[in-house]
């Protein structure tokens, strides 16, 4: 298997994550300034509450477009920031959007009620009945309130992912309704051709990004690469590796540490997509995923037949050597989280220490491969076994295994409790945050 070694990162190089994050902030700030300029040029209503409400509505529209960009899964952003962080930003931006929209409705309603001497409820009903687009805006707000409610942590814990995802799809309906309300009733659309052009361009870019990243690019890549199952290899009683082949895989921009959303096109599985990391560095000929049976989706992999067509979305994730800041690394894996770690070890350049945390020796998936690869690469490999308590990766133990850990990049993947414990240990050892790399592989709607 041939892989491309990742070159050492110059100490003065600007981190890709910083570039992307700064770019997103700059885009949002620049658009906020443009929105403010057009709003000022449109003039102010005599009622201060209406003025505040209009500004809240304009900023809400901007946040809604920004929301679409965050979940568009554009490769440039995803490789530099990662789907999990983009998902987290999307979530918090969503709560900001929710309160901004509520403020828009409240201030507008109370502002017009003050001028008309109607009570706020009657005023809102009157606006919905007499002003074009207002009723659509009320429906959009109702949808966003529902989506915001099911996105709260207490609700997410009680809902199946499929249920939450189905409800979340109504956000696109809310976007369309809000846009048509803005076109019909927004002051900037009726008073300035430049502002009208700006808003159409903004929404066109936002919606176009979603169509490109979520639909166009996956369709193009799957048509081009024609992915199929080449082999299914059991690794243990409950772990299986699936080898995928196809056309021109050397042109698929996948890297060790990334994952795909895999959809195996059989009668009983075509509708189900599951995220699995690559368990070997891409070599231009095959892709490999390794999964532990944790549900119907992963358990069914064992029964796939060679030749089965595959539809894959990705590659996704920033858990790659692109983000290295030091010439040497520590790779910490827990359980089946070893899959991206094993792939990363294959690609990484420079000395590495691998720490593999499992309950017992028989839980060490791909351990023989990892041991042979570590020997080939000149890396150190430590298999740490035992129950979760006491913590086998406490600060003192990590320092014993890797005395210079604060001078290395740390790549971490495993079950959430184990990851949280290791992150706490790294903080206690004063490992700089810029040297700690991990992803939680959460998905956005």
Automatic annotation (TrEMBL):
Domain of life assignment: Bacteria
Domain (FAD-binding FR-type) ranges: 222-322
Gene3D superfamilies xref list: Nucleotide-binding domain of ferredoxin-NADP reductase (FNR) module (3.40.50.80), Translation factors (2.40.30.10)
InterPro entries: FAD-bd_FR_type, Fe3_Rdtase_TM_dom, FNR_nucleotide-bd, MRET, Riboflavin_synthase-like_b-brl
Iron-sulfur recorded as keyword: yes
Entry cofactors: FAD
Keyword Manganese part of the UniProt annotation: no
Any Pfam family matching the protein: Ferric_reduct
PROSITE patterns: FAD_FR (PS51384)
Cross-referenced SUPFAM superfamilies: Ferredoxin reductase-like, C-terminal NADP-linked domain, Riboflavin synthase domain-like
Keyword set, alphabetical order: 2Fe-2S, FAD, Flavoprotein, Iron, Iron-sulfur, Membrane, Metal-binding, Oxidoreductase, Transmembrane, Transmembrane helix
First and last residue of the signal peptide: none
Chief location: membrane
Membrane topology of the entry: Multi-pass membrane protein
Residue ranges of the TM segments: 24-45, 51-71, 92-113, 133-155, 167-185, 197-217
Location in the cell: Membrane
Protein name: Ferredoxin reductase family protein
Source organism of the structure: Streptomyces bobili
